[in-house]
Structure formats: structure tokens, C-alpha cells
Design goal:
There is one protein chain. This protein has about 280 residues and is of the alpha+beta class. Helix content is about 40%, strand content about 25%. It has 3 domains: about 10-75, no CATH class; about 115-195, Immunoglobulin-like, CATH 2.60.40.1120; about 195-280, no CATH class. It is built from 9 helices and 11 strands. Helix 3 crosses helix 4. The chain starts with 15 loop residues before the first helix and ends with a strand.
């Protein structure tokens, strides 16, 4: 404010009279002015936002420059400009490198995977189930269900990026089940599967497979100890019913409604033979 030497050089402290004098001085030198509200917005408040370009032109002209661009070109040293450009290109190169690096990792870095291996064992005979094969449906939450069958050795393997596997198993002559396993370094797990005696006996009866039926009875005689303790839990908590070995084998080899609803609750083996068995029926 060359024409008003009483003004304080700290523009943020100016008040009504000093602001009015500045506006008059601005009008005298540039033939343009700004409102008092604009002055408060740009100079009396902490703001990182630049004024409008037309206001910047006025301020530049007030300081003796043609316009704002002329002010910038005369107040930005060339070395600093080069340094800014250098920093700009360095930033762009760094950003581009980071993006390319991310894409490389995403597309070309192998995704860690875990392989699960299982074999299915007949719980009674303690042998692998080979024929018919077990039907498997993999149910991992982030993948679509996938159907597969156990191979000729009674086993199957599944590779996934997840650290777990969940799958259901079905078979005409075995109980349905759903298995969930977290990944471990064990190479292979043996999964015991319960026989569906009703479905098996019905199959033998309907298809006249007498020899298979006799074979099943022999298998049961073999796995049940002669003095096995076998009892049925009666409904409504009224007690238990004891079964002899022969009575239980007859129950398991006759396709009745009771057999269809039998559920083994607990069993104990000694030297490969069942010495205690507890079951119930939902009838």
C-alpha cells in the first residue's frame, strides 16, 4: 500500500479501515477490486485454497506483473523448477513401478495351495471302500460345489488355496456324512464310514443276492465278540433292552423299519472285535 504508509505490513491483522484503504489502492492501480467478504475469506482465515483466478490476476497486477502467470514465471527459480520436475518424474516412475510390481505379483506369483488326501474305510470291516466308489461333493465356501468320486484305491485328493476343506459323502450302502478338516502336514487321513445296513440288506433281499447276504452275516459274526455286550436304549428314558450276538445279527440282516432307523451310539473294540455296542432306534 504505497499510498497509505500507515498500514501494518502483517495483512492478517488488518481491520475495517486498513481493508478499505487496501481496496481503494487496489482499485487505483488495477481498475479492479474485491469485496470485503472476499478479503476476509482469503486473508483473515487459515485456508489452503487459492482465490479465484480473476482475483489472482488482480493481485499480480497490483504487485506490478501483467497477470498471475507472469507472476509465477518470475517468482519460480529455474533450478527449483527442474527439481520439481525431477521429483515429479521420480514420483511417476515410482508409482508406475509399484503398479507394475503389484500386477506382476498378482498374475505371476504362484498362489499358495494346500492338498488334502483322504481314504474311506468301512467301519465294520476296517477295509477300504472300493466298490461302489464314494460320491463326494466339495463344499468350500468360496468355491462352487464340485462333484467327484473316490478312485480305484478308495481315496481322493483335493487341492485348494484355502487352509481347510469341507465335503459331503454319499454311497448307496453307507451312511451320509459331512467332513470338515483344517490343513495339516499329514499326507493322508483314513476316514471311517458307517454301513447303512438297511440299504444293504434291502439290496440283497430285493435282488436275491443270498450269497452276499450270507457273507454279510459272516462278517458280522467275525467282528462281534461272542460275549459282546449289546444293548438298545429305549425311548423316553425308560431303560435298556439287552441283545445277544445272534439277535443283533438277525436285526442287522433283516430289512425292517427298525433297521432303517437304527443308530449306533457307542462301541468298543478289543483286538479288532466289538465287545460293547450301544444303539437306539427312532421308532
Amino acid at each position: 500500500m504505497e499510498r497509505h504508509t500507515t498500514a501494518n505490513h502483517d495483512i492478517s491483522t488488518w481491520k475495517g479501515t486498513e481493508i478499505s484503504l487496501f481496496r481503494e489502492d487496489l482499485l487505483f492501480k488495477t481498475k479492479g477490486s474485491i469485496s470485503e467478504k472476499s478479503f476476509y475469506s482469503y486473508f483473515k482465515k487459515d485456508s489452503n485454497k487459492l482465490p479465484r483466478i480473476d482475483v489472482l490476476h488482480l493481485f499480480a497486477q497490483y504487485c506490478g506483473y501483467q497477470n498471475w502467470n507472469d507472476f509465477l514465471s518470475n517468482n519460480r527459480p529455474a533450478p527449483q523448477q527442474k527439481q520439481l520436475n525431477y521429483k515429479k518424474w521420480l514420483f511417476l516412475l515410482g508409482s508406475t513401478g509399484a503398479i507394475l510390481g503389484t500386477l506382476w505379483v498378482f498374475f505371476f506369483t504362484p498362489v499358495p495351495s494346500n492338498t488334502f488326501s483322504f481314504c474311506f474305510i468301512d467301519q465294520d470291516r476296517e477295509e477300504r471302500i472300493i466298490n461302489p466308489p464314494i460320491s463326494i461333493k466339495v463344499l468350500n465356501s468360496k468355491e462352487s460345489p464340485f462333484d467327484i468320486k473316490s478312485d480305484s484305491t478308495g481315496c481322493f485328493s483335493w487341492t485348494t488355496k484355502d487352509d481347510f476343506v469341507r465335503f459331503s459323502i454319499t454311497s448307496p450302502y453307507y451312511k451320509d456324512d459331512t467332513i470338515y478338516r483344517s490343513y495339516t502336514k499329514h499326507q493322508q487321513e483314513q476316514i471311517q464310514v458307517k454301513t447303512d445296513d438297511y440299504a444293504l440288506m434291502l439290496h440283497y433281499y430285493v435282488n436275491g443276492k443270498i450269497e452276499d447276504w450270507k457273507k454279510r452275516r459272516k462278517e458280522l459274526h467275525k467282528i462281534l465278540a461272542d460275549e459282546a455286550t449289546i444293548f438298545k436304549i429305549l425311548p423316553h428314558g425308560v431303560g435298556v433292552e439287552m441283545f445277544s450276538k445272534d439277535d443283533f445279527i438277525n436285526t442287522l440282516t433283516t430289512p425292517t423299519q427298525e433297521l432303517k432307523n437304527i443308530r449306533i451310539i457307542d462301541s468298543k473294540r478289543v483286538n479288532g472285535k466289538i465287545v460293547m455296542l450301544k444303539f437306539k432306534s427312532s421308532l
